[in-house]
Design goal:
It is a single chain. This protein is an alpha/beta fold. It has eight helices and seven strands. Strands 2-1-4-5-6-3-7 form a seven-stranded mixed β-sheet. Strand 1 and strand 2 form a beta hairpin. Helix 1 packs parallel to helix 3. The chain is globular and about 55 Å long. The termini are far apart.
Length: 193
């Protein structure tokens, strides 16, 4: 009746015409934050978002939001993603990783028929690679077309924002926030040591 609290990759079973929710293991380390650190700001904003579903409903909007994180390799994007996943686990939410936008959209539709109000984080890691492999149309439809779902936070990462089409990065309902993640500064690196 419900999916166990976990991270899933959505695949498609062509023989039975149904989605397969494949559980995947994800280890999440604790992070060290500094006051006014961009990581902490992002985590706080997402927490506020999850607590505002009634406000979204009052004004007639779906309870959904999207962030696109970009920055050089090793800047900390994956650490932020892992912490957001850990925080969502504590709210009994689920994480779906998008490997194929077409299967992903079909799986989300089936999932929402069973669990219409469960909090979901849709993860598009290296969104530029997803677009390079599958094109933009399915992904655009998923982000703000007919396939939109409620109670969802779309989170994408890329090392190469300059190769993304403006249709991806410049439409607020696709990604409300496009945030550059800089490498940790000296004091954060020192705290880790």
């Amino acid at each position: 009746k419900t999916l166990p609290n976990a991270v899933y990759i959505i695949k498609w079973d062509d023989n039975n015409e149904r989605p397969i929710f494949e559980k995947t293991e994800l280890k999440v380390d604790d992070l060290i934050f500094e006051n006014n650190d961009i990581s902490q700001k992002i985590l706080n904003e997402v927490e506020i978002f999850w607590d505002k579903s009634e406000e979204y409903k009052k004004v007639g909007f779906l309870h959904r939001r999207g962030f696109l994180l970009y920055g050089a390799h090793g800047s900390g994007k994956t650490s932020i993603v892992q912490q957001l996943i850990k925080n969502l686990y504590q709210k009994d939410g689920l994480v779906f990783i998008c490997n194929n936008p077409k299967f992903f959209a079909k799986g989300l539709r089936v999932f929402r028929q069973i669990e219409p109000k469960r909090k979901v984080l849709c993860l598009f890691e290296d969104i530029d690679a997803i677009i390079g492999k599958f094109g933009e149309s399915e992904l655009l439809s998923l982000l703000d077309g007919e396939d939109q779902i409620d109670y969802v936070f779309n989170l994408a990462t890329t090392n190469y924002p300059e190769i993304l089409d403006k249709r991806i990065v410049s439409r607020p309902r696709r990604f409300d926030r496009v945030i550059k993640v800089e490498p940790p500064n000296f004091s954060v690196r020192l705290a880790y040591f």
